[in-house]
Amino acid sequence: MGKIWGVCNLGWDCEVHSIVLTAVQERGLIRRALEGDRSSAEALVKAHQGPLYGYMLRLTGRPEVAEDVVQEAFVRALTHLHRYDERFRFSTWLFTIAKRLHVNARTKLAPVFDSESAAIAADDRAERARPGVGGGSESSDMAGASLREALGALTADQREVVLLYYQLQWPVEQIGEYLDLPVGTVKSHLFRARARLRSALAEDRAVQAWLAEVPA
Questions:
Q1: N or C terminus: fewer CB in 10 A for the chain?
Q2: What kind of fold does domain 1-129 have according to CATH?
Q3: Residue 54 near residue 121, CB atoms below 8 Å
Q4: What burial class does residue 203 get, using C-beta atoms within 10 Å of its C-beta: 0-12 exposed, 13-18 middle, 19+ buried?
Q5: Consecutive 10-residue runs of the chain (216 residues): their mean pLDDT?
């Protein structure tokens, strides 16, 4: 589907991991991008495209929809970069744009997305990145399928909080800002989701370790 600002084709070969930018570095890139520096715009895309694609893939369960949403989200974010409010992280703003596009896609594809809870399909790279899970083995495939099924059984809010906290490693404060929820509510969703996942995946040691961290 082409490339975004010449950086990476957002397909199955797009890395979920990314370059981690500090808030200061991020603001510097944004200011230079606003001045017309293409390399700064590309650096912003490179830093966020993998996590955003992995997140949207988990939400949509469809690689082609995730790619389209991510592509359009970056186009809109870079086109309207002058509207970005530096009081917030760029990732929060970008993910908000992507989520709105996702909601629009759900409306257009309602017959498919109505079964979202059963269609949470993680890409293989994200699954292999999970601690204790290797690639290619039957046991890994089964573990990945079990995790996807357990995630699909969560409420939409619980699943989204889990993905943001564990997959993207967002702090609870940023999750609350993105979802417009109090921090206490975010922690409550995490607590309930973790309990349900632990119960559903009691025999999966890798998942138990993955869920071990408790938010402050």
A1: C
A2: Rna Polymerase Sigma Factor; Chain: A (1.10.1740)
A3: no
A4: exposed
A5: 35 48 89 94 92 87 88 94 90 92 70 39 42 47 68 86 86 90 93 87 65 58
